[in-house]
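# step 3/5: fold
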Amino acid sequence: MEQDQLNELMKARRQKMIQLKEKGIEPFGPGCVPTHYSADIVAQFDSLEDTNVTITGRLIGIRTHGKAAFADLKDYRGKIQIYFRRDQLGEEKYNLIELFDIGDFIAVEGSVFKTRKGEITVSVQDYRFLTKALRPLPEKWHGLKDVELRYRQRYLDLIANDEVRQTFINRSKIIQTMRDLLNEWGFLEMETPVMQTIAGGALARPFITYHNALDISLYLRIATELHLKRLLIGGLDKVYEIGRIFRNEGISPVHNPEFTSVEIYESYADYRDMMVLTEKLISECAVRVLGQSEVVYQGETLDLTPPWPRETMISIVQKYAGVDFSEISGDAAAREAARQAGLELDGKEKWGEILNLFFEAFCEEQLRSPIFVIDYPVDVSPLAKKMDSEPRLTHRFEAFMAGKEVANAFTELNDPLDQRERFERQLARREAGDKEAHMMDEDFITALEYGMPPAAGLGIGIDRVIMFLTDSPSIRDVILFPTLKPR
């Protein structure tokens, strides 16, 4: 819509607003509680026929026919036709319909009936203005396709696209179902700090802010892990937190700097228990919200029914990259294998880091059906417990589907001496310029020295799970207000 045309339409709407006020009608009036939603009236028509109802919503269509007019009213649950008659409303009230615009909110009182064409309708006995819309909806608003506009002005997206509304309704239901299931299974929901003096619990670059009164820098959390594990030390055996995480990283179809995760910790459990919990949690969310454990994502069928296969990272790399890391003994040999495969290196990578590079470069995209990739190298797992049989590896897994990671878990490292050594190695990397390396957290090591029971922890990217369960191609399609560069 051209700007001049938009200005004229807005001018006309403001003029109608003035006319309403001149007639003693408040164009931004008080609320009105509906007795029914549109979908309820349609679903319960047999019992509601000829019954008086009160409905509220946004006008999305108006059709006048002399002494009568039809309109479509859209509310939270759907839309319904409403019918105005001059002889029922009276001349003055009926003529006010001329001051209606698409986008206005009104409240309607009337009786339910079915037209000769079979459409369930509310015959208006009275109505009143609730809100005058001073801007017109975008042209062809019922099919708003401009992706940039949809993300920047999500409110228009929600008005225009019913499937988008349903995605975010399902998002709310999925998160609530996760919460319900964890509560049913005996976990306690906790809240930990968003602003932290040390950014820990993940390998990620944090956002930095500043506290004036304390005269210190603070970090927006990159994970909830280390605070939740402190709660295990304090004797709370099964805890979780659903909350926002902040990572100062790039934006992509699967990355947003601000996202939602659930982290779950259980004393006396190990990473095998977390695999069972992961597949149960995600599959049960699908069943309870969507009615089935099989979903279609971008044309691929994903069967979420447990159990999901388990396969080691080494065996997957051998399968898809043709390199057997169980036969590669040291860092130098691993770096040579990487060079032969065409991977870029800085010459300082360790055996486990190179194994992980092979996995990311050659394998992740091949993992289409739900699968647990297990036994990650210690070099990329600073908080996971080592395997006794192979100290280069840890009791850790990540869950993948459709080529994307959705969960990360491990048997927790509870040896404070080993943890200090790993933090020191991470600190050396940080001092060498790696801004994603883990910081030293002396208080967490102190806490571990008081004794943390054997435990396992799990983190699930809720936004990615919702992508799969709602067939959404981008993480921005499931975050109401994704991070965008200002215009």
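# step 4/5: annotate
The chain has a mean pLDDT of 94.
# step 5/5: archive (pending)
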